[in-house]
Amino acid sequence: MRRRNFSTSLTLFAILPSSVFAETGDETKFDLIIIGIGAAGLSTAVSAAQNGVKNILLIDKAAFVGGHSALSGGSVNAVVPELQMKQGIKDSPEFWQRQIMETGEFQSDPVLVNTLVNNAQSTLHWLREIGIPFDDQVFEAWGGKFQRAHSAGQKRSGMTYVRIMNHKARSLSVKVRLRTEAVNLLEKDGQVMGVRVKDRNGKLTDLEAKDVVIATGGFTANVAMRLKYDSRLDASLFTTANQTGRGFDGSTGDGILMAEKLGAQTVDMDAIQLIPLRGGRLLNYVGGDIYVDSEGKRFIDESKGVKAIAEGYLNLPDRVFWVITDSQSQKSLDLDAKLLAGSVHIADSVSEMAKKMHVSAKVLQETLDRYNRFVEQGEDKDFGKKIFTQKIEKPPFYFGREQFDIHYSCGGLKINKTCQVIGKADKPIPNLYAVGEVTGGIHGRDRLGGDSLISCFVFGKIAGEEIAKKQKSCQ
Question: Is 204 helix (H, G, I), strand (E, B) or coil?
Fold first, then answer.
């Protein structure tokens, strides 16, 4: 679960090679239409084409290929014993499945989870064959809870995945239309027959297809939709894909809303993940910092998981959340950048720090003194924290205001293990599939870091295979 940042989205058009941009076309009949050109959509297109589907169209309302995937850090979880054992890591699909179920508070669909964990290794091998240069080094993704993550070893590997998969799709004659917004699914006698689209000039066109795949991502950027499921997620919160609120984030729930009109079921829609990444936090371990509110008082056990801390943050009346550490702690590599940006400050005394934080120096000193006594005793009598690595008492103090951004929607369209969208009476909607963040059921209430991209790849590959199998049987 590495940081996504859409601050570069405005320059993507210039960065990506011209081959990712498609010419406009007048064709209106296809074997397969895929809505959304991120990791999930591209995986589906490549898989379907490799398995014999001939006339495939990828569409996206954005002006560039990749969606959130292109700006992902690129952690991809998979159990690969031959690599993990070289690093002394003992893992198994069963252990991974147990961790997913526990993290999701046992709300995940065990069939989907089983499908994910038992297909991840072969999918990773498939991605290597496509040309993605995964490193042999296995690591623990942030929030991943175990060393099973893989990447291409670059700062933003997601861009590499998108570039290579897009090139592969184009080499397989997959067509691409950008700035093409899906408006509605076309339906007749209960079956999906295609997609109504709107081009950049507002012109509406009906595109026919034997099958349609929704790969539009989540709904984290749709404030009204967020508020429907959690009244705390108002417009004051930005997304990790658009941290200023002034950029582009296409995750507005379009695919979910279109499918719901046809009776599609959704699951876990209120399971929306927030993460703190761009403020005062400087430590990548637990026990060397404390979190205080606008009065300078602690409000939570800092060793809790991201979800619990996010809940504590959302319940603060003013959502002011400061992180404090001192000279003894091991700072992360972004210390200089955060100091330069002004998101982290340095103070030579508690009183100086309190002044900069606009809190009472007396209250802040009492908070630190009380916490340091807990460290000595090994017991946090206020919040039950168990992990302590140091007192926070030696200046200079490092502190900064932290904030949470909305990162991922764990819920979405209900699907089965072959990626069919489930409608009324728990039956699949004919000819309609969904893959990626637009779906629900895989992660439950929360997800492991590194599980998002692999879910896109695994289920995209499966969707392509299933659609090819189905279309062959109908010939």
Answer: strand
In the block, residue with structure tokens 């996010």 = 310
Q: What is the token pair recorded at 138?
A: 């296995």
Q: What is the dihedral of CA 333, 334, 339, 345, to 10 degrees?
A: -80
> How far is residue 185 from each of residues 37, 213, 261, measured CA to CA in Å?
17, 11, 9
Bridge partners (DSSP) listed for residue 30: 209
In the chain, the largest separation of any two C-alpha atoms, in whole Å, equals 79
**Residue 23, Ramachandran bin (φ over 0: left; ψ between -120 and 50: alpha; else beta):** beta
pTM recorded for the entire structure: 0.86
Beta bridge partners of 209: 30
Q: Say how far apart CA 35 and CA 240 lie, in whole Å.
A: 22
Residue partners of 111: CB distance under 8 A and separation at least 6 = 416, 417
Q: Cα-flanking dihedrals φ and ψ of residue 314, to 5°?
A: -65, -25
**Run of H or E residues at 429:** strand 428-434
Q: Encode the chain (475 residues) as per-residue pLDDT tens digits.
A: 444 443 334 334 333 443 444 445 679 999 999 999 999 999 999 999 999 999 999 999 999 999 999 878 899 999 999 999 999 999 999 999 999 999 999 999 999 999 999 999 999 999 999 999 999 999 988 788 899 999 997 767 899 999 999 999 999 999 999 999 999 999 999 999 999 999 999 999 999 999 999 999 999 999 999 999 999 999 999 998 888 888 899 999 999 999 999 999 999 999 999 988 778 999 877 899 999 999 999 999 998 878 889 999 999 999 999 999 999 999 987 899 999 999 999 999 999 999 999 999 999 999 999 999 999 999 999 999 998 999 999 999 999 999 889 999 999 999 999 999 999 999 999 999 999 999 999 999 999 999 999 999 999 999 999 999 999 998 8
